[in-house]
Every structure is written in structure tokens, then in C-alpha cells.
Design brief:
The complex is a heterodimer of chains A (about 300) and B (about 230).
Chain A (H helix, E strand, L loop, with lengths): L1 H29 L6 H22 L1 H4 L1 H28 L8 H22 L4 E2 L8 E4 L2 E4 H23 L1 H11 L1 H6 L4 H27 L1 E2 L3 H16 L4 H21 L5 H15 L14
Antiparallel strand pairs in A: 1-4, 2-3
Helix pairs in contact in A: 1-6, 1-9, 1-10, 1-11, 2-4, 2-5, 2-9, 2-10, 4-9, 6-7, 6-9, 7-9, 10-11, 10-12, 11-12
Chain B lengths: L1 E10 L2 E11 L4 E5 L6 H8 L5 E8 L2 E2 L5 H7 L1 E4 L11 H8 L7 H11 L1 H5 L10 H13 L5 E5 L7 H16 L3 E6 L2 H7 L2 E6 L2 E7 H6 L1 H7 L3
Helix pairs in contact in B: 3-6
The chains are: A mainly alpha (about 300), B alpha/beta (about 230).
Chain lengths: ~300, ~230
Amino acid sequence: MLLQQLINGITLGSVYALIALGYSMVYGILELINFAHGEIYMLGAYFGIIFFGFLTVLGVTNYSIFLSLILTFLLSIMFCSAYGFTIEKIAYKPLRNSTRLSPLISAIGVSIFLQNYVMLTQGATDKVFPNLFGARGFYFLSIRMTYIQLFIIIVSILIMIFLRLFIRRTKIGKAMRAVAQDKTMASLVGINIDTIISITFIIGSALAAVAGLMVAMYYGLVNYFIGYIAGIKAFTAAVLGGIGSIRGAMVGGLLLGLVESLGGSYISGEYKDAYAFVILIIILLVKPGGLFRKAELEKV
Amino acid sequence: MLKLANVHTFYGNIEALSGINLEVNQGEIVCLIGNNGAGKSTTLMTISGILRPVKGEILFEGESIKNIPPHKIVEKGISQVPEGRRIFPKLTVMENLEMGAFLGKGNFDEMLKRIFTLFPVLKERQNQTGGTLSGGEQQMLAISRALMSSPKLLLLDEPSLGLAPIIVNKIFTTIKEINHEGVTILLVEQNAMAALKLSHRGYVIENGRIAFEGESKFLINNEKVRKAYLGD
């Protein structure tokens, strides 16, 4: 039972972590809480359904499910990144030199806009993502794990390893850290701040797209409102780890997933969504900087 | 090489520069001295494109640079070591240097070699984060980082600030060396005596305007300059 819930929690937590990374990266660079980020995740799920449906009509899914999935992921990532990029240019960049509150309000506006946009164009009812793996799975040390859970965990871990290497080792990754630490100085060494900010939004949106698509595959159901609750939970995860910290977002996401899953089975499933907010309140009261504040905030 | 003509810059609502005229010729060390708040750093930040002049013209090698973004100005060959050094505290020494070479001008390994000859201590510290360095080491790193972009013109803002005299000497000797290697230098200093001794020409800035200018050896002997800035 415990181990079973751990697996469920890690699955859920991986998804939160992927979304939380987007919050944290943007916060690290712009000190902006991008409340529209959850909507990107929702769009990722919708694009997944749309493109997978499209590929089904074209007959690609009959040819190879694997290929179709790869194409669906790539297309969804591309479209979500384009959305993220555009949102920054339209809604945040013009406000960059204004008060801190303005872009935050703008973000909430974008979030409401995107929810309604999807509701109007896609309808208010649940959409279904085809169940590809069924409930198939395997037993490991007497725990049952479905293939889709395994898929989510493996993909998330790979993405996080890749992201960490990107930020630690590549020139762009180092430039992102430099911009997060001192924007003026970064531009004085010749870094184009606007480009780095755009890249940050593109990467964050790509991660959210993957998360959205995986959740669509996991639960099978998607509606225009899923970004709201997932966004707030991922935001909680980011705050839990210490917003702005990459490592914090990963650990915070996993912890939140575990708490939800364990709390849901040992305390009460009814309050599943409330645990995140209880955690948020406790963290803000006890350790407002998050878990990784002391261990030197690794901002990006 | 660099020419500022009647440059006016606002810092918030305050007019920090009210008509600066200044020229730096190829190969020179020019110093800009003056009291706190006179507009020295604002002048450098305006040249680097961080602050925008509301009036006037800035020419670099005959080309106007007053409306181009900071990273393009670096690309043109103007690098700045800002006040307070502004090392990226959580990047290692090596990563700081890599950021200096972000634009990829010149051969990285050769430049690194040159910098490690200028400041051997940076080689020992290369895997430490910038924030753990001493003030003097940070200043050396800041200068090195600026050199990594192979600048034609190096802007230095208060390189001696808060450093022990022995380190200041080392830094000033290095500035001279860098200049000998062909880099033109515009040096902002509160330590007027040291700056005038090092430079070929000097400008004295007061309340956002140039009050005196001339060859440094004459400025040192100028009665008014001595009274106001050299503590006579």
C-alpha cells in the first residue's frame, strides 16, 4: 500500500516538477510569477489531443503508435513554446520597466484569456485522449506500476537531467544564470537579455507542454480548467523548493506529489487538493524562502 | 576613437549629465575624476548603452552608438568594468570569464593564457565561485572578464575602490600593461592623484559638466584641481 502510493506520488510529482520548473526559471530571471504558465500546460494537453487526432485521421497511428506519439509530443512542444514566446512579447515585455505588480496582473489576464479562448474554441466539456496503453502494467516487488506511470517518471527524469546539464554546461545555460544574477552586468558582457528571456519562456513552455500531454495520456480526460489547479499546485511546489531554484522546483514537485498521494490515501481523498495549499501556507509561515534557500539559491 | 558631444542623461528624474563633452583617442589612457555623484558612473553607463542620453551624440570610431543596445556596443569593442565589480557571484571564476567571452570574439584559449599571466591567482581560483573571492581578486576577475571580449576601448569604473594600497598598485600597473598591449582606456576614479599619474589626459567632472580638462601632468599642477581633488 505504502509503496504503491509512493509510485503514484512520484508520477504525479514528476508532472508537478516539470511545471514548477517553468515557474522557477521565469521567476529566477524576471522575478515574475507567470500565472499564465498553468494555461500552457493545459494547452499542451489540448494540442496533444488535437495532433494525435490529426495523425489518426491521416492514418499515421495505424502505421506506428510510437512515431505518432513522438510527432504529437514534438508538435505540442513547438506550439506551446510559440505560445510562451508570444505571451512574453505581448504581455510582459512592454511592462518590464513598470512596477512589479503590473506584469503579475497582466499574467492573470493572459491566464483568464487562454482559459476562455480554449473553452470557446474547444468547448466546455471534457475531451478524451485515447487510451493507448490501457491499464497494462507490470509488477515490481509486489507493487503494480502501469506503463504510462513508468513512461511519465522516465521522461520526467530524463528531461530534468537534460535541463540540469543544459543550465550547468552550455553557454546559453550559463548566460541564463548570469542574467538571473545580474541583468545589467550580463548585458555589459554582450549577452542579449531579450534573447535569454525568450529562451527561458520557450524552455519553460516546452516542459509544461510535455507535462500537459503526459497528464492527458495518464488520466485520459482534459478540460479547459485543468491549468488552473495544476498551475497553482506547481507554483506551490516551486515555492516549497524555493522559487527561482531549479533543484528546488524538482524536489518541491516530487514532495508535493508524494504528500498528495499519501495524504489522499492515509488521511482523506476528499481533501486531495487542499494538501497543496496547507503546504503553501506552512511554508510561507515557517520558511518563506523555501527548502533550498539556505543551500545557496541556484537561480535561473 | 570615442567622442561625447553635449550628452545629457537623466537618472530617474534627475539630470545627471548636463552636456558632457569628452574625447578619447586611440591608445590613450584618459581619466575622468570628480566627486561622488558628479556623474562619472553615469557617463560610463551612458557610453555602454545602459542609460540613454536624452540629448547629444556619442560617436565610436565615427559611428553613432547612442541608440544601440548594450550587447551591440560590447560587440563594437567597448567593454566596461562597472563600479563594485559586479562579478556573477554564483558562477565560477572560469564561468565568469566564459561570460566575458560570450560574443566569441578572438581565441578563447589564447586570451585565457594572457589573463592567467596577468593575474596568476585567477588560475588557482578558476573553479571557485565568484562570490568567494576577495575584493582584490574580484577586481582582477572583473578586469579579466572585460578583456575576454577583446575590447578596443576599456571603461574602468573605480577599480581602486575599497582595495588595499598594495592591490591598488598591482591593478594600476596592470592597467598600464593592458594599455601598452593596445587597449585604449577610459578610467573613472575618485583617487584623483593616482588616476592623474597613470593617465595621459584627464577630465574633471562637476555636477554633470566637465569643469576642467587637459593633459594629466598639467591638471596635477592646476591650482583649482589641487584644491578641490588632490587635498591641498
